[in-house]
Write a structure and sequence with these properties.
Elements lengths: L16 H14 L8 E2 L1 H8 L3 H13 L4 E2 L5 E2 L5 H22 L5 H19 L3 H16 L8 H22 L7 H10 L3 H14 L6 H15 L7
Antiparallel strand pairs: 1-3, 2-3
Helix pairs in contact: 1-3, 1-7, 2-3, 4-7, 4-9, 4-10, 5-6, 5-8, 6-7, 8-9
Amino acid sequence: MKTPKLPAFPRSAGVTTHDYAFERLRQAIMVGAFPPGTPFTIRGLADALESSSTPVREALRRLTSIGALQSLENRRIVVPNMTPSRFEELISLRILLESHAARRAVAHLSDRQIDAIVAIDDAIEVAILAGDKAEALIANQEFHRKIYMGNPDPVAMPLIESVWLQLGPILGIAMDHVTQLYVIDRHREAIKALRQRDEDAVAEAIGADIREGIGGFDKQAIGKLLALAGEEVGTLGITS
């Protein structure tokens, strides 16, 4: 069984070992490093994170408490399984929450902040062209986060990130196919609407981006993605 490569995650000054282990594992789940059903052990994960077992144990506990991981009756910890109906529910929540968050942020975003959002979108394109799937997903989430955090009261952000965590495990597989679904660059539409301070157009562009991207798979396609994820789990995990 091979160990997945965790995305790079620089450790900021002052961040404790416990918080770093949690944040790095959280990000890895969020960007699809581990497909649904991936098993973990504390020892194997500590080796992957180059950490001792105590911070890893605490990170697993915290991630289990927020639904990002699942503790089974035999005390094994795994990435929760996905079903087509659960996938569709999470996509619907993304569209609802993120359209709202984008709309609420528009009036507060400065031209300089919008320029930063454009730079992030450019970084997504660079990562895609380089075949760096993890970096493209990280940059894509940062694109969305940068918009929503323009709201000085971003109360929707924790809810949005909870949905990202639950969808994350399927993203690694979906990313290989999602570019086939895009016909219109909805990020550029969103940026244009941001510059025009058009709340309705921004909300529509963000909703369409989700609907036509990761949300563009029908039930049959979702089933195929889940089957591919199951095959990958057969050769992947952090166990020891």
